[in-house]
Amino acid sequence: MKESTKRAIVRWLHIILAVPIIGYIYSPFDLVHYYAAPTRYVFVPTIVLSGLWLWKGHVVRRWFSLRPARDQRVMS
Predict the structure, then answer these.
(1) DSSP code per residue over 18-58
(2) Shortest CA distance to 12 belongs to which of 55, 51, 57, 58?
(3) How far is residue 20's CA from residue 36's CA, in Å, rounded to a whole number?
């Protein structure tokens, strides 16, 4: 899968998961308790992680890419 396709998938995930948060913000106050737990523990963390991935994902991929091993010789 190309990098542009992966980025598009993460971007749409980020946008789609923002819709329930908009509903949480603009819902009547007596219905907020129905949306509170899923919004706090599912939607917000997922949106934060996907946003960070869109912003700095290239750095994370560089960390986990194959790097040459450091020289482990004992210096005398």
Answers:
(1) HHHHHHHHHS-GGGHHHHHHHIIIIIHHHHHHHHHHHHHHH
(2) 51
(3) 10
- Amino acid present at 56: K
Are the CB atoms for 54 and 10 separated by under 8 Å?
A: yes
Higher pLDDT, 22 or 73: 22
Q: Which amino acid type is present at position 73?
A: R
State the sign of the Cα–Cα–Cα–Cα dihedral 34, 36, 42, 43: positive
Report residue 17 as tokens.
Answer: 């998961």
The tens digit of pLDDT for each residue in 14-61 reads: 999 999 888 888 888 888 888 888 889 999 999 999 999 999 988 888
